[in-house]
Design goal:
mainly beta, 5-stranded antiparallel beta sheet, 39 strands, 8% helix, globular
């Protein structure tokens, strides 16, 4: 267990923060007792010489490239929404997106949370979710809107989505957050769903934001955490002619609004849940403005911990004490505030071992004129190295939402994607403000705790910019490359197909629990090759109110085989497999030998 409250740790953390802020990358790393360059880190280019020994110009590594195919892929359903937003409810609502296989046909489907308008909500609201099912028999990815035939007919004002198999029947269920009420959809099979919210005991009011599943007590059943934002009444909104707001555009600001408590629901194993928020210590009695939610075992003790971003307040890092309670260590760990103790407008977060040291770090996005934080897990505390990593300055100005780690070029180093966009198109009339529609940002991991911005060369901004929110990653066409879906305000989502053509190898793992929860949420996989060791965990919720494909993807660079694959299942079982070939999707069932392997196309 990490003892963040000790005086020694606090002093070390403070000194490390000073080092990270003021020293050069080399000096700061020397201060921390570690070389700047990670072992085995590839350069961004390699020098070659001709027959006379003369140095040839550097040849850049093959770049990753994306193409937005949303329109031709059938993602064309427009939400009943608007861009000229004035109130907290309509500026913050919506944003969730998910990649999951709703009918277990081996192809990823897409769920998009629908936001709304004040007028539509007062008239009963619209559908809270749009479901696109990936068609069979198509040479290229194509989807059909099956929302109504799937039974996803609950109306309201949607916000986020968390995908998890709460009853261990092998079918992914959906929890949709929103304003006024949330919905639990039970998967009946064949992409058909039933609203079981009331029967399950998951009726939540108020303004819910992020949600994520995890088996916090390791009893084999998925539990659910739900963050909530501010208290607002759609029937009693401020009068636009009397409210001061922001520069005469936004009528209402959240800064002075009362927040709401958060919820943790324990799965009883019989299809119902109990509220254990207070007794576990995660209910947020301070009523901070909860936003993004992600689970991850940051200290490697085998028990899932919880990170919650808060708008205009410190972030919560809940350490799992293994006795069905948590200790909040956000500020003490260095994850709660900015590098100089600032309260920021925090949005989203993701866990990832971005420097391959065997520990999960964090990426945290924020409001405009506030840099992201890249938090390096040092064991007893975290250090914000965003400035030295080269991502603080380029991310300072935009309003940043969804984010995540993903190895998009399969070189074995997790890259970072960030989705941007202002709250309202009305802000475009104000000089100096961040634009409503902003470019996406993609930072390629150079392997030495630094990153380079490859957003434009990667093709992510070839089309006109959108106002983005949630992001989700997954291999849409099962070619071994990570693809991206992004929520767009007042429009259909973007689907960026990864067209990388480099020769790097890769692997995906589809894990199935038996004694552990069926979806294997919380399982940790360690992949070792001749040149690298990587870790990742199966998650069910993250980014900005979204959910990525639960299959774990690892880029392997030039390594054609894995020397060892270790799996630590959520209930504690450890398994090890040796000498596995790369370029395949492995389906592994807890406690069993590998029985299913699907080959990927040659890189």
């Amino acid at each position: 267990m990490l003892k963040f409250r000790s005086k020694t740790s606090a002093v070390l953390a403070t000194l490390a923060l000073i080092a990270s802020a003021f020293l050069s990358p080399h000096s700061a790393e020397t201060f921390l007792g570690r070389s700047t360059r990670a072992q085995g880190a590839p350069p961004s280019s390699h020098a070659q010489r001709d027959s006379k020994g003369e140095r040839l110009p550097a040849i850049l590594e093959p770049p990753v490239h994306f193409r937005d195919i949303a329109t031709q892929a059938g993602l064309t359903t427009f939400p009943h929404s608007r861009s000229d937003r004035r109130y907290v409810l309509d500026t913050m609502a919506g944003g969730g997106i998910a990649l999951f296989d709703c009918d277990n046909d081996g192809k990823l489907d897409i769920a998009v949370v629908n936001d709304s308008t004040i007028e539509q909500y007062l008239n009963g609201g619209g559908l809270m979710l749009t479901l696109y099912h990936q068609d069979t028999g198509s040479l290229t990815p194509h989807f059909t809107d099956v929302t109504k035939s799937a039974g996803l007919t609950s109306k309201g004002w949607g916000m986020g989505i968390a995908v998890g198999d709460f009853d261990n029947d092998g079918l992914p269920d959906l929890y949709v957050t929103g304003y006024g009420h949330n919905v639990l959809y039970h998967n009946l099979g064949g992409c058909k769903f039933e609203d079981v919210t009331k029967k399950a005991g998951l009726e939540v009011g108020g303004f819910s934001t992020g949600a994520a599943w995890a088996d916090y007590d390791r009893d084999g059943f998925l539990d659910l955490f739900v963050a909530r934002y501010v208290h607002t009444d759609v029937h009693h909104l401020p009068n636009p002619t009397q409210a001061a707001g922001y520069k005469g555009v936004l009528v209402e600001l959240p800064d002075t609004m009362e927040g709401e408590t958060d919820f943790l629901f324990r799965n009883r194993g019989d299809g119902t849940f109990e509220d254990v928020s207070e007794k576990t210590g995660v209910n947020d009695p301070h009523k901070l403005h909860g936003m993004g939610v992600v689970w991850g075992d940051y200290d490697g003790d085998g028990w899932p911990d919880l990170f919650v971003t808060n708008d205009s307040g410190w972030n919560f890092l809940y350490h799992n004490k293994q006795d069905e309670t948590f200790e909040e260590v956000g500020i003490a760990s260095g994850t709660g505030l900015g590098p100089f103790g600032q309260n920021y407008g925090n949005m989203a977060a993701d866990f990832g071992d971005f420097n391959r040291d065997g520990k999960l770090g964090l990426i945290v996005t924020r409001f405009g004129n506030q840099p992201v934080s890249l938090l390096w897990n040092r064991g007893e505390y975290f250090v914000d190295i965003a400035e030295r990593a080269g991502i603080a300055r380029p991310t300072f100005a935009p309003i940043k939402w969804g984010t995540g780690f993903g190895d998009f070029d399969n070189d074995g180093w997790p890259d970072i994607l960030i989705a941007n966009g202002n709250f309202s198109s009305l802000m475009d009339a104000i000089p100096g403000e961040a634009r409503f529609a902003e470019p996406l940002q993609l930072f390629r991991n150079l392997g030495n705790r630094t990153f380079e911005d490859i957003s434009d060369t990667a093709g992510l901004n070839d089309l006109p910019p959108q106002s983005r929110r949630g992001t989700a990653f997954g291999d849409i066409n099962n070619d071994g490359n990570l693809d991206i879906v992004v929520f767009n305000v007042n429009g259909p989502p973007s689907l960026f197909i990864n067209e990388a053509t480099n020769s790097n190898h890769r692997v995906l793992f589809h894990l199935i629990g038996t004694k552990s929860n069926r979806a294997a949420i919380g399982a940790r996989v360690v992949v070792s090759t001749a040149s690298m060791t990587q870790i990742d965990e199966v998650r069910a919720g993250g980014s900005y109110n979204s959910t990525s494909d639960r299959r774990l993807h690892f880029g392997l660079g030039k390594d054609v085989r894995m020397k060892r694959v270790q799996i630590r299942w959520p209930r504690g079982l450890n398994q090890e497999f040796e000498d596995l070939p790369a370029d395949a999707i492995y389906e592994i069932t807890e406690g069993q030998a590998i029985k299913k392997k699907s080959a990927l196309p040659a890189p």
